[in-house]
Amino acid sequence: MLRSRFFTAEQVEALIADYRTAGLDSTDEAIAAFAEKVALRAEQVTQGDIDTLRALGLDDAEIFDIALAATARLFWSRANDAIGYEPSQRLLERVQSLFGERAFRALLVGRQFGRPDAGRHA
Prior knowledge:
This protein has a domain of 61 residues: AhpD-like. Helices cover 66% and strands 0% of the residues.
């Protein structure tokens, strides 16, 4: 969604590599930092984190959406890993063509899959 609606492929690659050096404005950088904290250390989210986003103009529904987006990605990846889901060759090829090789590799979470043209394996 970021690539199709908001950023170029190069900008998405920069975001994946390190959002802090991707040239985001202060609001988008704060959103990314919050999402990262939710994903990696949700138990450490404080009222101060919420207040920072509010001070940048986000409302509670938008902040909740960020938390849901960050945790939904984790949930989906972990659930797929738990049941041994392996994406089809066609899906791997499609995702790689949308994002490019570097971004595709960076977006893989959990088990790593082979190159789309190399056949399926865990």
